[in-house]
Lichenan operon transcriptional antiterminator
Amino acid sequence: MHLGISEKLKFLDEKPRHKALFLLLFRADDYLTSEELADQLKVTSRTIKTDIKQLKEEIDSPEMAIVSKRSLGYKMEILEKEYENKIKEFYQIFPSTTIESEFDHRVNYIVRCFLSSKKPIKVEEIQRKLVINYSINRELQEVKQMLSQYDLSLVSRPHYGMMIKGATFKKVLLTIRMYRYFDKNASNDFGIPEYSAFFYCDNCEKEKIRQTFFKSITKSRIVFSDINAERFIVYLLYFRNQTLYKNTITLGLPEILFEYKETDEYYLVIEILQKLRNKFEGFEFTEEIIQFLTYIAIFSTDLYRFVDCSKENYNYLINLAEETRNFLLREVSEYLQIDAFDDYTCLKDLLKIMIPISLKIMLNVSDSIDLRYNDFKNDGHQPILRYYMKKIYKKFFKTYHYHFSKREQHLIFLTFYGMLNRIVLEHRKLNVAIIAIDGRLSTQQLKFNLQHHFSEFIDRIETKVLYELDLQSNHAYDLYLCSNYGKKLNIQHNPIYFVEEEMDELQYIDSLKYLFFQAFEYEKKLPPFSFEIQALEEPIKQVASYDYLPLNGNIHLYLNLDSEKENFKILRLEKSNQIEYCLYVDLAIKEDKQKLKMLFNIIQRIVDDSTKLEELSRTETRYSYFLM
């Protein structure tokens, strides 16, 4: 089944960087620039361009190709869904575990070596294991950064080597974190026997342990995600092996204001261990390990029901969860100049996210499962919100000394993105004229679809022939629709949209929905925008009074949401074959969510379709130009 794919992609096994590059492009939903790819793989953009050229030649086929687009970057196109599915199946799990860059591989290998060694390790020993003869200072800096998230440090003793220093439970958290990919089908060979021994278990016995765990959890109110469930099983295997090897572990858990024995997670852990002890050896855990596993269960709980987020279930965690939630809401309100507290759904969902995070704050660790969020770039989606969220994450770290993982950042972003989506734009109803060039009968399907799908936007629809419209001197319509044949005629009525004939119902909906954006009257909320063309005489510089957001390579957004004046200026800068766009936006939001959402919509449309800027002219002044 895999013969064709395996033969096609076999060369990637001998070229790790090309393999990582292939998988990044394969999994990306959109274009990736050479700079983004270089940042992921820890190489230069010039190296990426060289690798892309070679990779193009190696994989180019009728089924698959790498395409490039100016200012957007590179994208992999696969024409057949079946071919795409075979690639996913060939790499066993999606996303694949083989995405690590050479640099990431060395860093992870070094961390695992330190975690599994009972004695200090010298730099020369690490270089020998990695079969390299160059400096690993850059890798060690990354190792120290990773350790800092767990309040651990790398200490060095002259002539002895380096060791990880810190609380044992934090080392255990990082040890499991470095297992990395929590998938039941994943077969992890870490290349370090001492580290792999932490998790060894006969496959048949491991499956029985899994089933025992799943039967217990499905009968409780507790719900884990699939990946969190697999991680919890890895914890069970780790502590079981420590018990079987008669390794006495003192985790060193701190005293915190939290009654863990009052939680349902504690009773679940007790039940699971009791069932495992009845069937297998090695599950006679100490009370401290049971307490620690209760904490892990709370980290893992999927709090999809708000009723579970009570002081009865989580006692003192709720106080800190509400405090940290309110911190995020205040910061979002400040940056976006709106009241984020009045969205009840946002209040609820944020509290669900912050309950497990609050426990980790109490323990002074920034722990998370690895869903490979580093491998996905979504910065083009709602760039303004993403920009301010990054600022808020940094402020949160300064206040609570907690580093949000990529997964947690994604969840928090989605929560606030949902808040923005729930802002319903007010709109007026339009008077629509259907121009019946070929008689009224030919317009019946169009009229039916308009009435059926867009009635909330329409006050009145009238079907008129051209001479009737020409005789009406005082009746103007908000929108004119005409068959595609009308493009050949000199029709002076505006704004006009030509509808292709023989479209099915869904095509009508998709084709016509953008026409009704003008019903929202963006011009009444946003200042008139201006467009200018100037020579690019010097590099683009940041302006102190604005927040600067780079968009899509050659588009630069300068934003002020708390401005005394209102302005929306689009500047096109030209120099030989180089073109840059600067958007200067001054708005006084003043808690006007309608205005904020309109701005977000305009910027998103520009990001999604940069050709709108390329085709913009000085005569265009309506925001519907970007929306239609």
About this structure: Residues 63 and 485 are 37 Å apart (CA to CA).
